[in-house]
Design brief:
The protein has 118 residues and is an all-beta fold. The protein is built from no helices and 8 strands. It is elongated, with a radius of gyration of 14 Å.
Length: 118
């Protein structure tokens, strides 16, 4: 029987972006089948995938919508993080690229993430 990766479970994260934005108390879920979910600051559930890179390391990717003031989807942000789990915490680095609905790049930011197991 294969041992479950230590990231599997529910986490609460803080993301600090290079553009100065700090997002706190973001819920993340990592599932044994390599899927993951998170809820962004707008309350939208976003999905993605993760893969183990070592017994305690992983990489994950997810997309989240960009909306205008009226709630219309005007693009998306694709994010990637490389993290290491240490007992009931993880931390890592990565970033995101924002695209409009036509696929043109709007901008990008690097990001650091820290999380605690729930």
């Amino acid at each position: 029987m294969r041992k479950k990766h230590p990231v599997v479970g529910e986490w609460t994260a803080t993301v600090t972006r290079s553009d100065g934005v700090v997002e706190r108390d973001l819920p993340f879920w990592f599932f044994a089948d390599g899927m993951m979910e998170m809820v962004n600051t707008d309350g939208e559930r976003c999905t993605g995938t993760w893969r183990a890179t070592s017994p305690t390391g992983l990489a994950f990717d997810f997309s989240q919508p960009i909306r205008d003031e009226e709630g219309n989807r005007i693009g998306r942000t694709d994010s990637h993080q490389d993290v290491v789990v240490d007992c009931d915490t993880f931390e890592g680095r990565g970033g995101g690229i924002a695209y409009d609905n036509d696929g043109d790049v709007l901008g990008s930011a690097e990001a650091e993430i820290t999380a605690k197991r729930c």
